[in-house]
Automatic annotation (TrEMBL):
InterPro entries: Flavodoxin/NO_synth, Flavoprotein-like_sf. One of its GO terms (molecular function) is FMN binding. NCBIfam families: PRK07116.1. Residues 28-180 form the Flavodoxin-like domain. It comes from Dorea longicatena DSM 13814. This is Flavodoxin. SUPFAM superfamilies: Flavoproteins (SSF52218). PROSITE patterns: FLAVODOXIN_LIKE. PANTHER family: EXPORTED PROTEIN-RELATED, FLAVODOXIN-LIKE DOMAIN-CONTAINING PROTEIN.
Amino acid sequence: MCKMNVNLIHLFFVKNTQRKGLFIMSKKLVAFFSASGTTKKVAQMIAEEVKADLFEIEPKVPYTKPDLDWMNKKSRSSVEMSDKKYRPAIMKKEMDMSSYDEILLGFPIWWYVAPTIINTFLEAYDFSGKKIVLFATSGGSGFGNTVRELQSSAPDAVITEGRLLNRGTKQEINEWGNSL
């Protein structure tokens, strides 16, 4: 009888360390790409708000200010974004994505969609069965066709449009974090 009680207590403890109330706790990751620092600031605030791990998607060759000149058709970002199959190289980091249930994926909006470096990231790791919620910063445009364009890079994940966090205020991030 005593052994059975110990086993029941163990089972209860193990099952309930993964729960909060009636909701199963999920381990979250905030992954982001930031060329200018704006998205990085927002990502750090989100990670703190939702108590998630933080992962920076870093290009092998960092972007310079001239690279980001969207008015110059020959700038690096303009050239990359004009070819949807182009995949900028990233610094590949050892990361076990299997330990995460939900990935909050952030980036600046470039030409009405996510930069192609986000496709590179999605193709570099296994996101099978994961829920990926997008967030972005933008000077004025929305998500456009981002979900559709990213889905092919992670076909076994569920990708959903999250929120534009242009102002990146604490209140805005708290409200969005609480809605997840």
